[in-house]
Design goal:
The chain is α+β, with helices and mostly antiparallel strands. It has 3 domains: 137 residues, Immunoglobulin-like, CATH 2.60.40; 109 residues, Immunoglobulin-like (Sandwich); 62 residues, no CATH class. The protein contains 4 helices and 20 strands. The strands form 4 sheets. Strands 1, 2, 3, 4, 5, 6, 7, 8, 9 and 10 form a 10-stranded mixed sheet that branches. The chain has a 5-stranded antiparallel sheet with strand order 14-13-16-17-18, with no helix packed on it. α2 runs antiparallel to α3.
Length: 344
């Protein structure tokens, strides 16, 4: 009798150990599977345009027995505003849910959470937890920071998981002429892609005298942030003052077009410094003509439209230049007519 009781007791102990072993293995297996659960921003990279909206999803993959979830999502509040948050379809597939959220556009984050209701099992698999719609306020880029994420099972136990952020940038189409230089034989134009897309566009150069003939056009393809200097060979038809214009064609979607055109003024055939940028140009055609006459014609007679004559005898070139520049006569013909006149 005593022996039989010992056998029964031993059997119970062995059965208990076996049961504990099975439970232990099941626990290890469940933990290993849960550790591959991922909560992530989808798509991983979002692109927007100023004044428009875009939507991202908060998705989950490889989860077992999900009963409730919570997350925070942060962004750069100077670039984006959250305009709406909606519950996804994943947890709803397990029954009735309670969903709530709070948006703070000043600090740039949203807090959202959701749970099943009642005595039901959690949901398994992959799906969308929530969707967030953003409005693009200005240019820029930022991380869509997914943090403080919590997953809970139906037994009120935390589910191990990994959270993966997203990234946002504003779509920009923008090319620019960033430098322009010219000599009597060539024009050098530096253009840059200041946008976020690879662009192919034309770069043209012109000179202005009596007409606006084109010097040439070249087509370039630039990746974002890249620039290139193009050389255009030209032969001025005569001595004189020329305005050189370089123009990068407008690419599709470009809004910042002010820097697509750049001009400079150059003087052909007079030696010395012959380049003048468009921003510093202060001499009109008349003053340039006076400068040329003062430099090369120290003794001459100038005849004006009102039949007045001014005789300038043996006046030093520098003094003549300064006098005419400081006291320009009225009703002067165009500078081309001045340059055609000969000294007496």
């Amino acid at each position: 009798m005593r022996m039989r009781k010992s056998i029964i007791l031993l059997s119970i102990i062995i059965f208990s150990f076996l049961l504990l072993g099975i439970t232990y293995k099941f626990t290890i297996a469940t933990y290993t599977f849960s550790s591959s659960t991922t909560v992530y921003v989808d798509p991983q990279t979002s692109v927007g345009t100023i004044g428009q909206n875009f939507t991202i999803n908060i998705n989950i993959s490889n989860v077992i027995d999900l009963y409730g979830w919570e997350f925070k999502l942060g962004w750069n509040s100077t670039i984006l505003d959250a305009v709406s948050v909606a519950e996804g379809s994943f947890l709803k597939s397990g029954g009735e849910t309670f969903f709530t959220y709070k948006v703070n556009n000043t600090e740039g984050f949203v807090l959202a959470d959701c749970t099943l209701l009642g005595d039901v099992s959690g949901v398994n698999g992959n799906g969308t937890l929530a969707s967030v719609e953003f409005h693009v306020k200005t240019y820029g880029n930022c991380t869509l920071d997914l943090y403080d994420t919590t997953l809970v099972s139906s037994s009120e136990q935390p589910i191990e998981h990994t959270a993966i952020d997203g990234y946002y940038y504003t779509s920009v189409h923008d090319v620019a002429v960033i430098n322009l230089a010219a000599s009597e034989s060539s024009v050098n134009v530096t253009v840059e892609n200041q946008g976020t897309h690879t662009e192919t566009f034309n770069v043209s150069t012109y000179y202005t005298r009596l007409t606006d003939p084109m010097i040439g056009t070249q087509t370039v393809t630039l990746e974002p942030g890249a620039n290139i200097t193009l050389t255009f060979t030209w032969t001025p038809p005569a001595y004189g003052r020329y305005k050189i214009l370089a123009e990068a064609s407008i690419v599709e979607g470009e809004t910042d077009t002010d820097d697509n055109v750049r001009t400079i003024i150059i003087y052909v055939g007079y030696g010395g410094s012959n380049t003048e940028s468009h921003k510093s140009e202060s001499l009109n055609g008349y003053h340039v003509a006076v400068f040329i006459l003062a430099l090369f014609m120290p003794v001459m007679i100038l005849t004006f439209q009102k039949n007045r004559e001014i005789s300038l005898f043996d006046i030093p070139a520098t003094a003549l230049k300064q006098s005419l520049y400081d006291n320009p006569p009225n009703n002067l013909d165009t500078w081309q007519e001045w340059t055609r006149r000969q000294p007496i």
